[in-house]
Amino acid sequence: MIIAKIAGSNSHIDYFARVIDSLDVEIPPDPGDHGFGQFVSMELEGERAVGVIYNSRLINPEYSNFGPRLNPKPAAEIFSPDYLNEQGVLISIALLGTFSAVGDPIHGIPRYSIPAGLDVHLLDSDAVNSFHTDQNGGVQIRYFSQVLAHSGSLGVPLLETIIDRLRSSFSASEQAKLEVLRDSLKWPSTFASVKL
């Protein structure tokens, strides 16, 4: 399912996309489809880049625009329908890795950049689990430090959300590993709040 189109980037692994709306498709995506911690993919060069939504921004150019419109709304529908809905949602996507041409998950920085206008697809649960499963059937989150470094103050909550989502998909021993990883996120914030 297509939920957005790439609009630009802040870096090689940090992209933003505009969520498609009723002007683009008959049935636009639900808000949950482009929520915090949602996994997405973009197809390019025979591979699928995998990312996660870590932030959103609302676009509303009409806010604080108190002047009159040259065209009333009914006339705008006929003469300039593209100006009807200038409001929108931008989502920030951190790239986590790729699925190779044969479907193997590769965590890390993709070697290519994502072009503007490329479709952003919602990644289904099976693909999310496959992306986080290593060759031995265990859980893998090799992009851990990458997310912390590039997602700013949202890095820790994002990783907690990812870990919580993955927990039910793996065995008890793998869940224990995820819990240790989740606990490790608490240490920096705990020590940062303690003043000696």
Treating each run of at least 4 consecutive H or I residues as one helix, how many helices? 5
Q: Please state the overall shape, judged from the principal axes of the Cα atoms.
A: globular
Ends distance: 51 Å
For the secondary structure, the number of strands is 7
Which ranges are low-confidence, i.e. pLDDT below 50, for 5 or more consecutive residues? none
The H-and-E topology, N to C, reads as EEEEHEEEHHHH
Helical content class:
25-40%
Which structural class do the helices and strands define? alpha+beta
Strand content: 25-35%
Q: Within the largest sheet, what's the order of strands?
A: 1-2-5-4-3-7
Radius of gyration computed on alpha carbons: 20 Å
Mean pLDDT: 86
Number of separate domains: 1
The main pleated sheet reads as:
6 strands, antiparallel, barrel
Description:
- This protein is α+β, with helices and mostly antiparallel strands and 196 residues long.
- The chain has one domain.
- Helix content is 29%, strand content 27%.
- It has helices at residues 73-79, 125-131, 144-150, 155-167, 172-193; strands at residues 2-9, 14-19, 39-44, 47-59, 88-99, 105-107, 119-122.
- Strands 1-2-5-4-3-7 form a six-stranded antiparallel β-barrel.
- A hairpin with a 4-residue loop joins strand 1 and strand 2 (14-19).
- Helix 4 (155-167) packs antiparallel against helix 5 (172-193).
- The termini are far apart.
